[in-house]
From TrEMBL:
It comes from the Eukaryota. Residues 67-89 are annotated as: Disordered. Transmembrane segments: none annotated. Pfam families: Dioxygenase_C. It comes from Geosmithia morbida. This is Dioxygenase.
Length: 351
């Protein structure tokens, strides 16, 4: 069993060695992009964080936890690939294979075999999009009755100023279903725009609190695609949130708003699986998505999940992870048109 001493020792050794060697969807989201937080302020490098052995060790510990969870999900072996975090560009991000292939890894393996500080990124604060809904439940499994390829995500948050994990922060996630429709809202370009009951739907939305390693975990399905957007998941870290007896949280501001993406080859493979195959919307590639272009152009960020497959068939599921560097002192207004209450969804702009 790895303890903190072993992790610090490994981290120190690693550092020493390193020193040596849909039209409406698209338009509304573009508007939110234009009014998002300052990308220039967020375009910082977290490479300097690699100089602190204990903090690197904490990230390694989180990696061990992540790997143990993968082993519980599916007993299989995979090989490893590393990615460099030098100056990013859209082409370098799109050209990177994020499929991690770890072979023969166990809990007794050296964490450096499958996790290094090069997985740490800075994710600029970005557009919240038109479909954020506050008031969702604190829960890990957000699938409900939605069909799709199982997806298990681990997102680790690190403070870009201190290089420490950010524990105790509530994080919202939300995404489209397999056919590109968001729950919790009513909009002419979101599925059946006449379906008022959709505002009471809570599928594929949820909140978790980061653990001591700054990690949140969600069980979901792979997100579907819709016009003008590549497959993605929204994340929002709350500032000074309070958990309510109703099992939700309330906060006035966000310390981070972002969007996370997937390798194009993985998306193509998912697209051929039912019910994703029933989606007749033209696929928007990562290279054509305004948000991923903006993120990669304004920072050193790689906003694409690393992942492993959980079986011989893609339909068996995907385990994905990413580390996000944030500025915990940032405060962003949280815009929304709908809210989830104890009595169901409510539209705020009804006449």
């Amino acid at each position: 069993m790895w303890n903190q001493f072993n992790l610090v020792r490994l981290a120190t050794a690693f550092l020493t060695a390193s020193s040596m060697a849909h039209p409406g969807h698209e338009e509304e989201e573009r508007k939110s992009l234009a009014t998002a937080g300052s990308f220039a302020d967020s375009a910082l490098s977290v490479g300097r964080c690699s100089g602190n052995a204990e903090k690197v060790a904490r990230r390694m510990e989180a990696a061990i936890q992540r790997h143990a969870h993968t082993q519980r999900l599916k007993k299989r072996s995979v090989d490893t690939q590393g990615n460099s975090l030098d100056k990013r560009s859209l082409e370098s991000v799109l050209g990177t294979n994020h499929h991690s292939r770890l072979r023969g890894i166990t809990l007794d393996s050296d964490p450096r075999d499958f996790f290094t500080t090069t997985t740490c990124i800075l994710s600029p604060d970005g557009g919240i999009g038109p479909y954020y809904v506050p008031g969702e439940q604190v829960r890990r499994d957000i699938t409900e009755d939605e069909e799709g390829v199982p997806l298990y995500i681990h997102v680790q948050f690190i403070d870009v100023h201190t290089c420490d994990p950010v524990p105790g922060v509530y994080v919202d996630v939300w995404q489209a279903n397999s056919t590109g429709v968001y729950s919790g809202v009513q909009n002419p370009v979101n599925g059946n725009g006449r379906d008022r009951s959709n505002i009471h739907n809570t599928a594929l939305r949820g909140i978790q609190r980061t653990d001591r390693n700054g990690v949140v975990m969600f069980d979901s399905i792979f997100p579907g695609m819709y016009y003008g957007r590549a497959a993605h998941i929204h994340v929002l870290a709350h500032s000074e949130a309070t958990r309510l007896p109703s099992n939700t949280v309330v906060s006035k501001y966000a310390s981070h708003i972002g969007q996370l993406f997937f390798d194009q080859d993985l998306v193509h493979g998912i697209r051929d699986i039912y019910p994703y195959s029933t989606n007749v919307t033209d696929l928007t590639l990562n290279r054509d998505d305004d948000f991923i272009k903006m993120i990669t152009e304004s920072s050193e960020s790689d906003p694409v999940f690393k992942y492993v497959l959980l079986g011989d068939d893609l339909a068996d599921g995907v385990f994905a992870w990413i580390t996000v560097g944030i500025q915990t002192t940032s405060y962003y207004d949280i815009d929304h048109d709908f809210v989830m209450t104890e009595n169901g969804g409510v539209a705020l702009n009804d006449d």
